[in-house]
Amino acid sequence: MVSQKQLKGPDVFARTFAADEKSLLAIAARLEARAKHGFFQQVVGEYLSALQLGGNESVLDLGCGTGVIARMIASQDDWSGRITAIDISPYLVDTGKRLVSEEGLADKIDFLTGDAHSINELQGQFDVLIMHTLVSHVVDPATVLQEARRLLHPEGRIVVFDGDFDSLTYATDAPDGGVETDRLQAIAGHTQGRVMRLMPRLLSDNGFRLEWSKAYVAADIGRADFWSSTLPALRVLLPSAGVMSESDASEYVDKLEGASMNNTFFASCNFYTMIARGIQAA
Ligand SMILES: C[S@@+](CC[C@H](N)C(=O)[O-])C[C@H]1O[C@@H](n2cnc3c(N)ncnc32)[C@H](O)[C@@H]1O
Predict the structure, then answer these.
(1) Record's InterPro entries (predicted)?
(2) Ligand 1 centroid – CA 264 distance (Å)
């Protein structure tokens, strides 16, 4: 059986089940900050609107982190459905539970700890399953999609939103313009850098029919904006992944923050959303 614990690479977001508290705090802060950014609010708003939810569905936020997507749905005025939020990290699940209590949403969301490769006890229960930047971190995306198919009602829908992290770049003043630091960032922060290019085929191979898609470029040119909340996290996460020393990570981030102050910053990554429906067996 495939398990996240078989992970071989250094991706810190894929190792949250065993990460130290300093890394988990940095991850939680980054997830909360990016959720408040207009780009992510636009992305989530567009896929929720494409889903045309009635307000009483059963929704699973898989790889929920601190539960930002679950909380966005639960806080809609007309929402009366049931939301389950699952993550492999007990620390992030506990943070999510604390935040929903503070926000008065505790009676609308159930938080659980689990590995997306095998969530056996909840089979066939959900109308909609959302993976918001999960698949780029899992050991085996095909197994996770098969599991999603089992978790959903036969014609339930899946939303997959993620970065095409092989396109992620932060320009630097190094002689190679940042090629090597981009490579280190890619392995420190992601496990499946090309998975969204393969997603239409993976969905089809695992019992889904693609119904809707949308492409985005998150590019900050001159000043860091969307990417600005990543920069403090990189100071902690690059050393935690073992790809840079603390002093190299600090120097790298200092220069990126300096570039933003000088209006010479450039960072960019492509993102995609795909919505697909389970195909009923004949
Ligand atoms: C980039 S974060 C996204 C969190 C949240 N969906 C959001 O957008 O704020 C990726 C999340 O996937 C979780 N994760 C990684 N592998 C997982 C797995 N096999 N099963 C469940 N969660 C997993 C991590 O703990 C982390 O919270």
Answers:
(1) Methyltranfer_dom, SAM-dependent_MTases_sf
(2) 32
pLDDT tens readout for residues 138-193? 999 999 999 999 999 999 999 999 999 999 999 999 999 999 999 999 999 999 99
What DSSP string describes 161-197?
EEEEEEEEEE--SSTTTTHHHHHHHHHHH-S-TTHHH
Q: Enumerate residues 6+ apart whose C-beta is below 8 A from 120.
A: none
Residue 99 structural domain: 7-164+192-216+271-278
Ligand 1 centre distance from Cα of residue 133 (Å): 7
Say if 39 falls within a structural domain: yes
Q: Kindly state whether residue 186 falls inside one of the protein's structural domains.
A: no
CB-based contact 185:253 (threshold 8 Å): no
Domain total for the chain?
Answer: 1
Q: Which amino acid is at 1?
A: M
Q: Does position 279 have pLDDT exceeding 70, yes or no?
A: yes
Q: What is the CATH classification number for the domain harbouring 49?
A: 3.40.50.150
**134 alpha carbon to ligand 1 midpoint, in Å?**
5
Nearest Cα neighbor of 44 from 73, 13, 77, 65 is 73
How would residue 282 be classed by pLDDT, with cut points 50, 70 and 90? Answer: low
**Nearest protein CA to atom 15 of ligand 1, as residue:** 14
